[in-house]
TrEMBL record, chain A:
Name of the featured protein: ribose-phosphate diphosphokinase
Gene Ontology cellular-component annotations: cytoplasm; ribose phosphate diphosphokinase complex
Catalytic activity: D-ribose 5-phosphate + ATP = 5-phospho-alpha-D-ribose 1-diphosphate + AMP + H(+)
Keyword NAD belongs to the record: no
TrEMBL record, chain B:
Top-rank taxon: Eukaryota
Record-linked InterPro entries: Pribosyltran_N, PRTase-like, PRTase_dom, Rib-P_diPkinase
Record GO biological process: 5-phosphoribose 1-diphosphate biosynthetic process; purine nucleotide biosynthetic process
EC number: 2.7.6.1
Top class in the EC scheme: transferase
Alphabetical keyword list: ATP-binding, Kinase, Magnesium, Metal-binding, Nucleotide biosynthesis, Nucleotide-binding, Transferase
SUPFAM superfamilies assigned: PRTase-like
Gene (UniProt): PRS5
Cited Gene3D superfamilies: 3.40.50.2020
NCBIfam families for this protein: PRK01259.1, ribP_PPkin
Catalytic reactions on record: D-ribose 5-phosphate + ATP = 5-phospho-alpha-D-ribose 1-diphosphate + AMP + H(+)
Family under the similarity heading: Belongs to the ribose-phosphate pyrophosphokinase family.
UniProt xrefs under SMART domains: Pribosyltran_N (SM01400)
Protein name: ribose-phosphate diphosphokinase
Length: 336, 335
C-alpha cells in the first residue's frame, strides 16, 4: 500500500458517518423503542414477502458508507421463524449491495441457539450453520443477548457482543423485594446454575437448584430440588422459556417444598405451543420476561406475564459500538 | 452405481421416490421435522461417510423453510464426512429477480419520504448461491433456470438441464393438429426458449410483447405473429400467479386463436392460480412438470392439469455425474 492509498483509506475512516437502524418484520416495536432511545428515525428499508413466499428487500434511502444496524430477533413460531431468518440474511445482503460501511445484525434472541452441538450422529450443528450464513451474507458484527451457550460466540469469525439482561433483572428484583434475605434464587436446571449463582452473589442471597432427568426433548420427567426453600420467596431464573413445562413443574415442586411464593424471570419468552395456557393454569405468581421477543399479544392473554424493557441496553450498545467505546460497561450497569 | 446416497427434502418427496425407482436405489433415510418454536431439525439416518450424496429440494411452497432445511441437510452431510454433496434443485430457490412491486389499489408500499434517492429492490440470487456454497454444497443440478446468468453466481459446477425434450414429446404425442400449431412466448424473456422449440419442430412462432407505461402504470400487450384459426401452445419456464399466462391467452383469443395449451416447466401456482386459470376457460390443457410436487393439484384439477415426469432426466443426470460421464448428452437425447 503506498502513501497515497494509505491516506485515502485513513481519510475514508475519518469521515463522519451515521447510524442507520433498520427494522425487519419480526419485532418492529423493539426497533422503534431503540430508535427512540437513540433519537433517530427508523430507516426506510422494507422487507416484503411475495405470494410465492419468497421475501425481498426494498431500499428507499441511501445507506452508502453508513453504519447499519438490522434489528431482527429469532421469533415467529412454527410458521414464521425461518421466514424471518431468511429476511435477515436478505436484508444484510441488500445492505452490502447498498455499500454500507459496516453491517451489524442485532439478534436479541439468537435462533437455533439450542442446536449447538452434535449430540446425535449425522445431525448438523445448526447454530454454527446460522453463524456461517450470517457471515456469508455480509454481516460484520453481531449483537445478541443471553446466548443459550456462550460458546456460540466461537462459531463466528466476526466479532460477537453477547449482552446480558442481568443488570436489568437485578434492578427489577431490588425494586420489588426490599428484604433480599427473604429471597431464594432458583435455577430450574443444572445448565443455568452459573447464571443464577452470579445473580445470587450480587444480591447476596442463597440459591437452590433443580436437577432434572430428561427423557425426551421438550418433555420433563423427574425433578429433584437441591437446597432449602422453606418460607422463602423463590425466583426461578432461566435464559429462555419455550413450552414452559420446566418452569411450571419447578414452581409446583418449590411450593410443595414449602416456598412462600414463586416467580420466574426469563430473558427470552419464546412461548411456543400451548405455553400460555400452561402459564395461566400454573402455580407461578408472576413471570417476568424481557421484550427481546414480541410479546404484546401474549401479555393480553396471560395476566401473570410482565415485560422488562431491554431496548435501552441494545440502544446503548449500538451507540457505543458506533463511537468505538467499550461495551463491557453494560455488563454490570443499568442504562436508562 | 458407486457409493451413492439420495436424500429427499420435504418439498418434493414423490419425485425422489421415482428417481430412486428408476435408478433401482434405496432412498436415503432422513428425519426432517420442525419444533413447535419453528426451528427446523434434521437427522440423517443413512451413513454418508465417503459417499457421493445427492439431496433434492425444490423451491416452491414454504420456500424459506425448505431452503433452511436444505442448508441444514447439506451441513449435516458435510459434518458426517460425505465425499461430495450434490444439490438437486429442480426449481431453483429465489430463481426470479423480482421487479419492484407495483403500487396497486389496496397494496401498501411504504411511501417514499423526502429523500433524493431512487428506491430499489435487492437482487437475491448471489446470496442464495453463496449460502449454498457456504453450507458445503459441491455441485448444483437444476432445470430450466429462469436467468441462466445464475450459473455465474456460483464458484462450484452448476448443471442446468433443459425440459425441451419433454415439451417436444408432449407436443408430438398429446396435441392434435400438432403440425399446424403456433408456439407462443408470453414475454420477450422467454422468446429464445420458445423459438428453439418452434424451430426444432418446424412450427411457426408468435410472441406477446408487454409494454408497461410507467407514467400511467398500465399494461398494454400486443401480439407479434399470426395465430388466426390456429391452435396455440404457450411455452414458459415458470408460472406463479398466472397473471401473464391469462393475459396472453386472452390476447390470443382476441386474435382469433382456436385451442390454447399452456406448457410451463415449473408450476408454482401460488395462491389459487391454477383455479383462476381453469375458471377463465381459456385453456384447453395446462401442462407442467413434477419439478414441483403436483400430486394434490392434479387431483383437484379435474383432468385439466397434465404433469410431465422429469424423474428420468434427473435420474440419468445423477447416474452420469456419479459415473463421471458427460451430462450434455442428455440435452439432445430422445425421451
Amino acid at each position: 500500500m503506498d502513501i497515497q492509498e494509505q491516506e485515502n483509506s485513513m481519510s475514508n475512516k475519518d469521515t463522519k458517518n451515521n447510524i442507520k437502524v433498520l427494522a425487519a418484520n419480526s419485532h418492529p416495536e423493539l426497533a422503534k423503542l431503540i430508535c427512540k432511545k437513540l433519537s433517530l428515525p427508523l430507516s426506510n428499508v422494507q422487507a416484503i414477502q411475495f405470494v410465492n413466499n419468497e421475501s425481498t428487500v426494498v431500499v428507499h434511502e441511501s445507506l452508502r458508507d453508513e453504519d447499519v444496524y438490522i434489528i431482527q430477533t429469532g421469533c415467529g413460531g412454527f410458521e414464521k421463524l425461518n421466514d424471518y431468518l431468511m429476511e435477515l440474511l436478505l436484508m444484510i445482503h441488500a445492505c452490502t449491495q447498498a455499500s454500507a460501511r459496516s453491517i451489524t445484525a442485532v439478534i436479541p434472541n439468537f435462533p437455533y441457539a439450542r442446536q449447538d452441538r452434535k449430540d446425535k450422529s449425522r445431525v448438523p450443528i445448526s447454530a454454527k450453520l446460522i453463524a456461517n450464513l450470517l457471515t456469508t451474507a455480509g454481516c460484520n458484527h453481531v449483537i445478541t443477548m443471553d446466548l443459550h451457550a456462550s460458546q456460540i460466540q466461537g462459531f463466528f469469525s466476526i466479532p460477537v457482543d453477547n449482552l446480558y439482561a442481568e443488570p436489568n433483572v437485578l434492578k427489577w428484583i431490588k425494586d420489588n423485594y426490599h428484604d433480599t434475605n427473604d429471597v431464594m434464587m432458583v435455577s430450574p436446571d443444572a445448565g443455568g446454575a452459573k447464571r443464577v449463582a452470579s445473580l445470587a452473589d450480587k444480591l447476596d442471597t442463597q440459591f437452590a437448584l433443580i436437577h432434572k432427568e430428561r427423557a425426551k426433548a421438550n418433555e420433563v420427567s423427574r425433578m429433584v430440588l437441591v437446597g432449602d426453600v422453606k418460607n422463602k420467596s423463590c425466583i426461578l431464573v432461566d435464559d429462555m422459556a419455550d413450552t414452559c413445562g420446566t418452569l411450571c413443574k419447578a414452581s409446583d415442586i418449590l411450593l410443595a417444598e414449602g416456598a412462600k411464593e414463586v416467580i420466574a424471570i426469563v430473558t427470552h419468552g419464546i412461548f411456543s405451543g400451548n405455553a400460555i395456557d400452561r402459564l395461566n393454569s400454573s402455580s407461578l405468581k408472576k413471570i417476568i420476561c424481557t421484550n427481546s421477543m414480541p410479546l404484546s399479544k401474549h401479555v393480553q392473554e396471560c395476566s401473570i406475564l410482565e415485560i422488562l424493557d431491554i431496548s435501552s441496553i441494545l440502544a446503548e450498545a449500538i451507540r457505543r459500538l458506533h463511537n468505538g467505546e467499550s461495551i463491557s460497561y453494560l455488563f454490570n450497569n443499568v442504562v436508562l | 452405481m458407486r457409493d451413492i446416497v439420495i436424500f429427499s427434502g420435504s418439498s418434493n418427496e414423490p419425485l425422489v421416490q421415482r428417481i430412486c425407482q428408476n435408478l433401482s436405489l434405496p432412498q436415503g433415510k432422513v428425519l426432517c421435522k420442525k419444533f413447535a418454536n419453528g426451528e427446523t431439525s434434521v437427522q440423517l439416518e443413512t451413513s454418508v461417510r465417503e459417499k457421493d450424496v445427492f439431496i433434492l429440494q425444490s423451491g416452491a411452497g414454504n420456500v424459506n423453510d425448505y431452503l433452511i432445511e436444505l442448508l441444514l441437510m447439506i451441513s449435516a452431510c458435510k459434518m458426517a464426512s460425505a465425499r461430495r454433496i450434490n444439490v438437486i434443485m429442480p426449481l431453483f430457490f429465489y430463481s426470479r429477480q423480482m421487479d419492484m412491486p407495483a403500487v396497486k389499489a389496496g397494496e401498501i408500499i411504504k411511501a417514499k419520504t423526502e429523500t433524493t434517492t431512487e428506491s430499489w429492490i435487492a437482487q437475491n440470487g448471489m446470496l442464495i448461491a453463496n449460502l449454498l456454497t457456504s453450507a458445503g454444497a459441491n455441485h448444483i443440478i437444476t432445470m430450466d433456470l429462469h436467468d441462466s446468468q445464475y450459473q455465474g453466481f456460483f464458484d462450484i459446477p452448476v448443471d442446468n438441464l433443459y425440459s425441451k425434450q419433454l415439451v417436444q414429446y408432449y407436443l408430438a404425442n398429446f396435441i392434435p393438429k400438432n403440425g399446424d400449431c403456433v408456439i407462443v412466448s408470453p414475454d420477450a424473456g422467454g422468446a429464445k426458449r420458445a423459438a428453439a422449440i418452434a424451430d426444432s419442430m418446424s412450427l411457426s412462432f408468435a410472441l406477446v410483447h408487454k409494454e408497461r407505461r410507467i407514467e400511467t402504470n398500465e399494461d398494454r400487450s400486443m401480439l407479434v405473429g399470426d395465430v388466426e384459426n390456429k391452435d396455440c401452445v404457450i411455452v414458459d419456464d415458470l408460472v406463479d400467479t398466472a397473471g401473464t399466462l391469462i393475459k396472453s391467452a386472452k390476447l390470443l383469443k382476441c386474435n382469433g386463436a382456436n385451442d390454447i395449451y399452456a406448457i410451463v416447466t415449473h408450476g408454482l401456482f401460488s395462491g389459487e392460480a391454477l383455479n383462476r386459470m381453469i375458471e377463465t376457460k381459456l385453456f384447453k390443457k395446462i401442462v407442467t412438470s413434477n419439478s414441483v410436487d403436483q400430486t394434490e393439484r392434479k387431483k383437484a384439477s379435474n383432468g385439466m392439469l397434465d404433469v410431465l415426469d422429469v424423474s428420468r432426466m434427473f435420474g440419468e443426470a445423477i447416474r452420469r455425474i456419479n459415473n463421471g460421464e458427460s451430462v450434455s448428452v442428455i440435452y439432445n437425447a430422445k425421451i
